[in-house]
Q: What sequence folds into this?
RNA sequence: GUGGGUGUAGCUCAGUCGGUUAGAGCGCCAGAUUGUGGCUCUGGAGGUCGCCGGUUCGAUUCCGGUCAUCCACCCCA
């Protein structure tokens, strides 16, 4: 038997309904915030991710589905969504056009990891990217939008937030951090010793207990921000407070992707196991420039659909649709015609086989239909159809021509 | 990449200290006076006991390998 590849899942009942409900809910909210739908290719040139996500990241270093295509091009399945949207933004010269551009997207992402709860090799994200808006109020608004989405889906969360500074304050901080890290170098794990050279900021969120103990006296990023970054960060925190958003400061929150500047945040849930980040994002003012575009401030986020699937509370849906069946084979053509007519306005189930009334009712019930309409011997003779409302139990018999 | 758990009916799981026809609940199908769903009762269908190999007179059961899956580390949404 051929089965789906490791870490890849079919989205079937009951998840399929939650999946589409989630997407339509999130999309509707994004639209209200002025975002427009965008779709970008699943396959991109590998260098796009090397330059945006960062070669030092695990995602690019060891988790990409990367291969050489028949034309000899180094390509890979996208491991995340932001890079492709930024590429699209630049390629279409939207950076030169100026103004504000806001996009939302959703679709599959691919990372070659060991699967576990909340972590698949093919998984789905819903994300938003806002280009051209420098104001920290945009950072806040995007967080507010995520709140609206999770509230609409009935999902609880807390927010972890940090500021990673900007080109003005980050280099100075990085330098003092590296100095400190070199002092404690011998006590750090192998990974961290390597990170001092490649990406010292990442040492901060090392999960190794002994590293964390040594890091206690290391300089704190939020205490070393430049005036602008500090002011913005405080504005953001004040806004979060005044809107009752449950957040906690986390100076060790370093987004795993290299392109973030200033605001970095993560929405976490305590109900879903070790992979607790259900959404993450932040500001990435430098990324457009890194990818050869005109410097453009940007902020965005992505949420992991599979991670929140079990948390979504979907509104109860009652019986819906019409079930059509017959007890006399001669009536089948009428059923087919009627179904076609009815489908212009509602959901219709048709049964092609001759069945007892009891079997029809049972089938209609199981399908969740609201009405069960049957043509039997008597009805066929009189050009009528028998209809029962499965909820109110009301029954009636009317002329087929008048059934509409 | 590392560690641990699990693979028996469509689903959730029992069970076999190695021995004839491998079980339950749910689900499915059919009946319970002829054309009335959900509840109840009765009956029925459905399983190469993940796969390969070893030990044995004999393996679903023991051993090894393999694959899959789950959980955790790591990583991240």
A:
């Amino acid at each position: 038997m051929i089965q789906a590849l490791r870490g890849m899942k079919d989205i079937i009942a009951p998840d399929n309904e939650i999946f589409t409900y989630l997407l339509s809910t999130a999309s509707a909210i994004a639209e209200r915030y002025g975002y427009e739908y965008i779709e970008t290719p699943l396959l991109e040139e590998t260098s796009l991710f090397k330059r945006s996500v960062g070669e030092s990241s695990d995602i690019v270093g060891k988790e990409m589905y990367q291969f050489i295509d028949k034309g000899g091009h180094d390509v890979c399945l996208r491991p995340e969504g932001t890079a492709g949207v930024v590429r699209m933004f630049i390629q279409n010269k939207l950076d030169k056009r100026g103004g504000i551009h806001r996009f939302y997207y959703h679709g599959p992402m691919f990372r070659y990891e060991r699967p576990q709860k909340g972590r698949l090799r093919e998984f789905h994200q819903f994300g938003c990217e806002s280009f051209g808006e420098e104001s920290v109020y945009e950072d806040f608004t995007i967080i507010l939008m995520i709140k609206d989405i999770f509230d609409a889906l009935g999902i609880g969360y807390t927010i972890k937030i940090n500021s990673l500074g900007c080109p003005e304050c980050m280099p100075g901080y990085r330098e003092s951090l590296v100095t400190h890290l070199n002092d404690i170098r011998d006590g750090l794990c192998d990974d961290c010793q390597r990170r001092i050279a490649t990406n010292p900021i990442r040492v901060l969120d090392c999960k190794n207990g002994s590293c964390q103990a040594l890091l206690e006296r290391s300089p704190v990023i939020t205490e070393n921000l430049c005036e602008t970054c500090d002011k913005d960060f405080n504005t953001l925190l004040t806004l979060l407070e005044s809107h009752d958003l449950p957040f906690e400061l986390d100076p060790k929150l370093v987004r795993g992707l290299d392109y973030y500047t200033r605001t970095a945040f993560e929405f976490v849930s305590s109900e879903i196991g070790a992979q607790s980040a259900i959404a993450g994002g932040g500001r990435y003012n430098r990324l457009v420039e890194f990818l050869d575009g005109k410097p453009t401030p940007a902020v965005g986020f992505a949420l992991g659909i599979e991670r929140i699937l079990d948390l979504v509370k979907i509104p109860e849906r009652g019986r819906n649709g019409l079930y059509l069946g017959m007890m006399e084979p001669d009536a089948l053509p009428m059923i087919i015609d009627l179904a076609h007519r009815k489908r212009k306005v509602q959901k219709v189930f048709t049964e092609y086989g001759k069945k007892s009334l009891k079997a029809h009712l049972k089938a209609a019930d199981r399908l969740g239909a609201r009405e069960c309409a049957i043509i039997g011997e008597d009805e066929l003779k009189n050009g009528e159809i028998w209809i029962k409302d499965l909820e109110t139990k009301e029954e009636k018999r009317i002329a087929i021509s008048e059934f509409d």
About this structure: The two ends of chain A are 47 Å apart (CA to CA).
